[in-house]
Amino acid sequence: MNSSASFHLFGWRPSRGVARRPHSRLARSALGIVLAPLLLGGCAAHSVQPAAGSIAGSITVFAASSLKGAFATIGAQFEAAHPGVKVIFNFGPSSGLATQITQGAPVDVFAAASTKTMDSVIADGEVKAASTFAANSMEIATPAHPTRSVTSLADLAGAAIKVAICQQDVPCGAAALTLFSQNRIRVTPVTQELDVKAVLTKVQLGEVDAGIVYVTDVKAAKGAVIGIQIPAADNVTTTYPIAPITNSTNGSTAQAFVDYVLSDAGQNVLRAAGFLSP
């Protein structure tokens, strides 16, 4: 992709030269005092801030793993529309990203794979309000060359079938458990992965017979796995909220990125990736 947009996977850690976001809570203020000596040898990530109201500089976007492909495209388009702007992505499990945000990670925008996860960040005061920009539903993924036959949701209850899902505190894991419960099938996963991309990898490698992933993940795999659709009446849907972080050091650009995701241009990218309208 010919773009300066950059991204890395889940795993933010405070490092030399990178300042945490300002936060009003006393505990985090105290933590900032402890970290201050570590920052003297370098410049903070947002030390040169753009003029108020201008769309300039860089922003860091924390986004659910399932958004990786679509947001990489949206980020490139946003940068092209605003020359000089840089969008840095951190993709990972929504619950883990939310924890990083509440611990003071330097971030400007958060896009989660569930309303529940976003609500936890709102409750902590990191976000004032969020906008729903997409929805997704679940699909069964099996290896491109399966060794055991899986053709329906009911097959996942078979004793010989190895099933992978996300961890239950991650939106894709919670959705999988709801899917099993509402369809009254008992499935014992052999592994619960950190995020949906990890589940998909297990399927691609043939380490499991099936995995519960999002429809968009099967589409993004481009034939590397076989997708087995779940009837709409039996399926579950998750919604995706997005919001600028209240204490972003580049609020104007953060809001502009959120607006772009909600715009026709951003929505067209999401629809092409297989996401549903919110």
From TrEMBL:
Keywords: Metal-binding, Signal. GO terms for molecular function: metal ion binding; molybdate ion binding. SUPFAM superfamilies: Periplasmic binding protein-like II. InterPro entries: ModA, ModA/WtpA. GO terms for biological process: molybdate ion transport. NCBIfam families: modA. This is Unannotated protein. It comes from freshwater metagenome.
